[in-house]
Specification:
By secondary structure, the protein is an alpha/beta fold. It has three helices and eight strands; from the N terminus they run βββαβαββββα.
Length: about 160
């Protein structure tokens, strides 16, 4: 039986890790885990590769967890090369309604007018503004770019 051809999206900027599989741009399968990206990503990808043909690899390139971004990028870049499929990326704000993304301590990454900065966020006042990451129901690849190097923004501590 032939495998379905799908596009893959990985959001690993914070916990939980989210992976979506898209057929004709529609989400058909998803994976979620609170385990470390380095531990669970290989397990999920083995299951995915056993059952699907990947056409495009997409991921949120940052900002967020430095280590998770690095692991995801290296893993997907290796797959892209070995499977000869495109690797596309966009920033994480596309998946959390442009909400602040946890950096360190009380600092959050914020995006305003296309600029990403770190700002202190008072959670008692801003809780309703912090939105979780979510896989889109429809994958719009026009929001992604072949500029896929990780977006490492390390705030001053």
């Amino acid at each position: 039986m032939p495998k379905k051809s799908v596009d893959l999206l990985v959001i690993s900027l914070s916990s939980p890790l989210l992976i979506g599989l898209y057929e004709n741009s529609k989400l058909i399968q998803h994976y979620e885990s609170h385990e470390k990206t380095s531990e669970i990503l290989p397990h999920f990808m083995k299951e995915i590769l056993d059952n699907y043909d990947l056409q495009t690899l997409c991921f949120a390139r940052g900002p967020g967890s430095f280590m998770a971004i690095k692991i995801t990028y290296l893993f997907l870049k290796t797959l892209s090369i070995t499977l000869k499929v495109p690797l596309l990326a966009t920033n994480g704000f596309a998946f959390n309604q442009n909400s602040p993304i946890k950096a360190v301590g009380s600092l959050y990454f914020c995006q305003e007018n296309g600029m990403i900065t770190t700002q202190k966020v008072d959670l008692s006042k801003e809780k309703e503004k912090i939105k979780p990451f979510a896989l889109p129901a429809n994958l719009d690849k026009t929001r992604f770019s072949s500029e896929n190097e990780p977006l490492y923004i390390l705030p001053a501590v």
